[in-house]
Structures are given as structure tokens and as C-alpha cells.
Fold this sequence. Notes:
The protein is an alpha/beta fold. The chain has helices at 12-23, 40-47, 66-73, 105-126, 132-142, 147-154, 158-172, 177-186; strands at residues 3-8, 28-34, 51-54, 78-83, 97-100. The chain is elongated, with a radius of gyration of 19 Å. The model has no long low-confidence stretch (mean pLDDT 86).
Amino acid sequence: MSNRIIICEASEIITTGLYEILQGMAGCDVVARLDNPEQLGEKILACDANMLIINPILLGHSERNLPSQLVKEHPQLSIIAIVTTYIDPSLLKSYDAVIEINDSKPKIINKIGQIVKSNDKKETNDDVELSKREIDVLVAVAKGMMNKEIADQMNISIHTVISHRKNITRKTGIKSVSGLTVYALLNNLIDENEVYK
């Protein structure tokens, strides 16, 4: 399984160093490099990324909760902080790992390796069952609802709906709406009379 990684860091020297280390690791593929977090949500979706390495300094006071928000919208995502200066330790609790600016290459490889292992386990577990939210989205799709309607009904963004649909397709191997409808019927997630509502 390939770990698709986005690096979000303003310093090109740090980004290039991380890129070199990551490209040398088996199963790691850097799919995007950003110098600010503005387009992060769209990039994660577009690249189907499952790992983000970000400098928390790039997040303003109002964006401090962005890591938690991103994980809520993209459950497959692991987030690693790259710390280049002092950061309040309480702010680092929402990250899966922390890379310090003075960490050695083996230490960085070890920290990222732990996340890679964890992602592999997550992927294996994910293949077995859909999350509660994914089942909700699947049922809505089977009932003929559009992404916008699902987003409005569940009070989530369209990007999140698309992310859930990607996960559902990956786990079930079913791409078409009719196929997902049959899957929902066979697994008693909906009744036949709900399909055409």
C-alpha cells in the first residue's frame, strides 16, 4: 500500500530535506508540497492523501483546530507536526506524531515508519467494514440523493461526502450507484420501497 503524503511547510530547505527522506522510504510517495494551508482540504481530496506533514506555525490562532477538523473530514488521514520552533505542547496533542527540527534522519524515518505501519493496519481494518458515517452516506446514495443533498442533510461539506464515497468504493470495490444500491439492499441497510423515494 502506498502512503500518499502532502508536505505543508513554508521553508523550501525543510520541505526538500523531508522530500528526500520520504522518497527513500518504501511505500511512501510525496504527492504534493504546499507552502501554506489554504488549499489543504481540496489537495487532500484531489491527491487522495492519507498522510499530512505540516508545520503548526502555519496555522493561525483561528486555525488551531484544523488538524482535528481535517481528520473528521478525512478519516484516513494521519497528521504529523514538523516543529521548527517552540510550540505549546498542548497544541501538539492532536497530531499523530511530532518531528523536531533537530531530529536525526533515522529518528525521522522511525517516526514516519510508525505512522506507515499504523496506516497499513487502518487500511486492513477498513477493508472489512464501513464506518457509521460511511453507512449513512451509502444509504443516502442508495436512496438516490445527490452529494449536495447528502451534505446538507448530514451538515457536512460536499468534500467530506466525496471523501466518504471514495472510501466506500475502495472498501466495497463498487463504483456505480446501482451497485451500491444492491449492496445496501443485500446488507439490509435499506428497504426496497426506500430506493425510489
